[in-house]
Amino acid sequence: MQASFWHSKWDKGEIGFHLDQANPLLLKHFDSLALTKGQTIFVPLCGKTKDIAWLLAQGLNVVAVELNKTAVEALFSELNVTAQITQLDELNLYKAKQLSVFQGDFFNLSSELIGKIDAVYDRAALIALPIEMRIKYTQQIMQLTNKVKQLIICVEYQQAEMQGPPFAIHAEDISAYYAKSYQLNLLESIKVEGGLKGKLAANESIWLLS
Ligand SMILES: C[S@@+](CC[C@H](N)C(=O)[O-])C[C@H]1O[C@@H](n2cnc3c(N)ncnc32)[C@H](O)[C@@H]1O
After folding, report:
1. Is the CB of 125 within 6 Å of ligand 1?
2. What gap in Å lies between CA 120 and CA 33, rounded to an integer?
3. Residues whose CB is less than 8 angstroms from the CB of residue 87 and which lie 6 or more positions away in sequence, other chains included
4. Is 66 in the pocket of ligand 1 (CB under 6 A)?
5. Could you say which residues bind S-adenosyl-L-methionine here (predicted)?
6. Alpha helical stretches, state H, 99-198
7. Per the annotation, does 19 bind a ligand?
8. Domains of the chain (ranges, CATH numbers)
9. Interface ipTM
10. Cα separation, 131 vs 165, whole angstroms
11. What is the tens place of the pLDDT at every residue in 110-142?
């Protein structure tokens, strides 16, 4: 997906992927990450997700990245905090207390910029990317974070039935991207009530990679 695709979605308010509450699968399976207060979780392609407020409330530091400036500003505004903004070479860093959000392209991040990460939370990041970008994405995740454990929430459906995003990610895809580097554990797979986009039979799955 080109950056312009996502900017246009945010401009038009077409953000059906955004949930008004923290993701129920995150709440249910968060403990499997075995994190302790003060550790740092990385949230790639974060949008303005409510999951960040929930992760902060668990006493974690959150480092995130999001392309769209409106989304980042909405995230801080909905958290009711004012960010200090620092302009970096290709990214802007929005920072307030335990939250740091890089506004710009995920592929311009470096491990030096994001610092030490203890876990990754990928909800609708891998599934946001077309197949030709996914190997680059998964390699960048591993390189940035030194292959720390991950929770991944993705959707499964018959890809031929609909054009993504979201793109379908099946067990064999998770395996192809990550099996060489991680132990893969499918924690749960649930039916998407009412179907994906209100029409298509789909499952939402959560994986622990350790
Ligand atoms: C499907 S949404 C998911 C947002 C969020 N994870 C959630 O659960 O609500 C994907 C987000 O990734 C952002 N995005 C897409 N490509 C990106 C990139 N290369 N770098 C940073 N953010 C990107 C989009 O602007 C969009 O907000």
Report:
1. yes
2. 9
3. none
4. yes
5. 10, 45, 66, 123
6. 111-114, 131-145, 171-178
7. no
8. 3-11+22-209 (3.40.50.150)
9. 0.99
10. 11
11. 999 999 999 999 999 999 999 999 999 999 999
